[in-house]
Amino acid sequence: MPTITGTGRMPGNRRARHHERDGKMQTMTICHAPQPGGPETLRFETVMRPRPGPGEVLIRVGAIGVNRLDAMQRAGAYPLPAGANPILGVECAGEVIEVGADVEGISVGMRVAALLSGGGYAEYAVAYWRHVVVVPADWDDVLAASVIETFCTAHETLFELSRLSSGERVLIHAGGSAVGSTAILMAKHIGAEIITTVGREDKATRLRAWGVPHVINYREADFSQVVREIYPDGIDVVEDFIGPAYLAHHISLLRWRGRLAFVGLLSAGITECDVSLVLTKMLQLRGFTLRPHSPAEKAAVVERFRQTWMPVLAGRAIEPAIHAVLPISQAVEAHRMLEAGDNFGKIILCP
């Protein structure tokens, strides 16, 4: 029976504060991908329940956010950062049931959302306390699990890297995806001018109902031509989930001091770009992925989310899109749904 632990840093003379002790061997069920492959390779297994080390908390998981990197990891296409938990799942929500030494402001019984180094597809998960956000009392676990990964990613790429501001023009691809739809809500909230792309008309209809003025179905029109018709002098920011296939178009569309953030790679391979345009327009091209951040860097990301977007979310000024809530026994279906692009917004699993 494999044993899943915390960081393993707890000295022998320091003990965590405990909850839910029953004197028996404590186990849990996990969902993982022991061999790379398609969604059907996901397996359930019983393992030892983790224990929090110093600076860590143990969460009884109530809901799990499904992310594209989960599917990439399952397929063997996402190398794990050093020290990452190999169990799938990088975000969860639930109740704190045990607190390690050197934790501040978080106690047993609190309901939280958390970024994880892995280990979310489970009944219990360990998180570094600075990667945990206490959620409002009127939130359920599903709502809590739907926000932290997507809002952290969208905030860092739109606002920290790309410095998007009110009145600027932003092109957000994959508008129906979890991060894409979140980025649209955030950009709308601050008063940016939004253009988005989708591959299905039902998603386009939903985004227009949100008040997005320019929604392009890339299967029916050349998105770059449509953008050029809307804004002949170009745009300011691109939130790019596509990668190589669109890079030349983006460089052409960006205007003076334009910014592009690479957030994903839905296209593969290597491409060429006109470096002279990057130079003469003084463009900035930045890449971002959240999981490999150091614990301190990720803590800063979470703190920016806490300060900037938790008040907005708590006040219901933004309502994140949740596509489906499934029991974890249907994790295979959740991965199939994600890879087929059927979702509009977040897919949530519940143990």
TrEMBL record:
Keywords: NADP, Oxidoreductase. Residues 1-23 are annotated as: Disordered. It comes from the Bacteria. SUPFAM superfamilies: GroES-like, NAD(P)-binding Rossmann-fold domains. The keyword NADP applies. SMART domains: PKS_ER. Transmembrane segments: none annotated. Residues 37-349 form the Enoyl reductase (ER) domain. InterPro entries: ADH-like_C, ADH-like_N, ER, GroES-like_sf, NAD(P)-bd_dom_sf, Quinone_OxRdtase_PIG3. One of its GO terms (molecular function) is oxidoreductase activity, acting on NAD(P)H. PANTHER family: OS02G0805600 PROTEIN, QUINONE OXIDOREDUCTASE PIG3-RELATED. NCBIfam families: quinone_pig3. This is NAD(P)H-quinone oxidoreductase. It comes from Aliirhizobium smilacinae.
